[in-house]
User: Which sequence fits this backbone?
């Protein structure tokens, strides 16, 4: 059994008196389509698609709009980071191997996306647990990207 001990530090909780807190997104943890587009071709960044390979490759119709992926993005499906038998995260070694095989390393900024910014948080959570620091979420994800004809899209 593998358990990760820390949570992703994407939100500050500010206390405003007894029993009250107000969550606020930390600056820099969330990016928009402009930042994602700017990262295409930037060797200092890696864009990670957490959707299944059939959606990443554009082989199936997408409920998000045009099929495919952000150009140059790599695929580390969130579903592959969960053990199907136990419903727990895979071991840290297995997670690290999956990310490394896709070219994700600690020297590059990571921008993770999926369909709507939910599954990508699994990738980001595990990367955080593995000691990666420069982690961002494109929360608009394919739900925004695939519907915007001005943005490039890539398929196999």
Assistant:
């Amino acid at each position: 059994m593998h358990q990760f001990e820390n949570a992703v530090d994407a939100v500050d909780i500010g206390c405003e008196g007894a029993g009250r807190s107000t969550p606020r997104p930390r600056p820099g943890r969330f990016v928009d389509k402009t930042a994602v587009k700017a990262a295409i071709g930037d060797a200092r960044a890696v864009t990670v698609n957490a959707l299944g390979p059939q959606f990443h490759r554009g082989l199936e119709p997408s409920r998000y709009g045009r099929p495919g992926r952000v150009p140059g993005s790599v695929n580390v499906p969130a579903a592959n980071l969960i053990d199907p038998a136990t419903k727990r995260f895979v071991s840290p070694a297995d997670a690290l191997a999956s990310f490394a095989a896709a070219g994700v390393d600690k020297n590059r900024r990571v921008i993770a996306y999926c369909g709507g910014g939910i599954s990508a948080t699994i990738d980001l959570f595990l990367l955080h647990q593995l000691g990666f620091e420069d982690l961002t979420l494109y929360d608009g994800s394919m739900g925004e990207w695939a519907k915007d004809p001005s943005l490039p899209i890539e398929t196999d």
Summary: Confidence is low (pLDDT under 50) at residues 1-15. The first strand starts at residue 11 and ends at 15. The longest helix spans residues 92-101.
